[in-house]
Amino acid sequence: MAFKSSLLISTFFLLFFFSITTTTVRLCSAQIPGNNLDRPQSNSDCTGRWIHIRRLPPSFNLDLLSDCSGYPLFDDFYPYLANNGLGQKTHNLSHSWYRTDPLMLELIFHRRMLEYPCLASNPQSADAVYLPYYAGIDALRYLYGPDYNSSSEQGLNLLDFLTRDDPDSWYRHMGQDHFLVLARPAMDFSQPLGNDPPLWGTSLLELPQFFNVTALTVEARAWPWQEHAVPYPTSFHPPNLSLLEMWLQRARRSRRTTLMMFAGGGGVGNNPNIRRSIRNECENNTKANNVTSNKNLGRFGSGGAGYTKLCDIVDCSHGICEHDPIRFMRPMLQASFCLQPPGDTPTRRSTFDSIVAGCIPVFFEDSSAKAQYRWHLPEDQYGEFSVFIPKEDVVFKETRVLDVLRSIPKARVRRMREKVLEMIPRVMYRRHMSSMGLRAKKDAFDLAIDGVLNKIKSKVPVQRRVFPQ
Question: Which InterPro entries match (predicted)?
Fold first, then answer.
């Protein structure tokens, strides 16, 4: 009963917070000076960085949160609305760890936008226009609900509103200065128009009218220029610099007693694939370690300590780990390398969980990260914080992952781990209303804003800006 009451209270404050940013009919994105929680920004501080939050009716965002369990094949996401989309705390005394659902990225991003320091009330004087449309949540009714046969229609109502309500803002640059956030892979919004019968996904990104809009998505396709991938939200959302530094120290001092670990599902079928190869290799070495001596493992240790386990698997089948970070975070803290094989899609939230744990990610194809998150994980630095092993070599050429990782010198492993720890602020979404000290470190949201502003700047003709009123 207490848990339910907490959720009701959290949801009430969530709705109340958004409602105070409106003047009429609860337009959830209206600009209120009080939403600027930073120090007042001078014109020079915000030059080229002014963003206008487009006013959308609540049917495009807040109203979508009211039908949390209305999708028969999808879990109820009501528990994850708490704390403005961060979800419930993992335990009562936690200040940084939450049961965050990746689908809440749109809500998390919207909440952070409301305290962005360079908000412009006039779209004509803004450098970019943010559309607070919860597309991933809206897509549920097409993917799992009764509107499956109408999936090609997602986005048409939004387009109609944008062109009717304030056509000047939309047609000024034909949407090139607009951006939105998608909390699902871009492929889920890429069904070709006119498919009959409909295939998986909606056609939001296939609408020609939206080709100019920049889409920030957790996984982009390889070819469309309007998309760019941003990190999946992890469960780590520190509110101040002290708690971030405490976690960094814990991750740095953690004894890495396992050489490599994999947290995930799959790999149990008969068809050859990278996950099956990893499971087979791990299970075979676990059996071997039960009957042989580990006396030579010490030379592969980190920080002078030997590995007591070569491989660990945390079974996360059926989504049992998704909202329970304790299941995988402790093993990640104990491992030197965290394997990130592709599954149904190339990317994984686990990539960012492992970075937060200070566990060196091991990739098996470029599209898992290197071709995705260039704003947050610089492409020219991958060799400094990660390992790449082509999946074809593992599946078909009998390359052993353990052999590759054991051959890496201890000194290089230590340097790679320090680089991973250095990158934690870049891939986490700090808590809203965080301290000024923590705001000095750019997090995943800040880097996404920098990236989208630069992307829009490259598309939109240079024009004289006036100070936003």
Answer: Exostosin, Exostosin_GT47
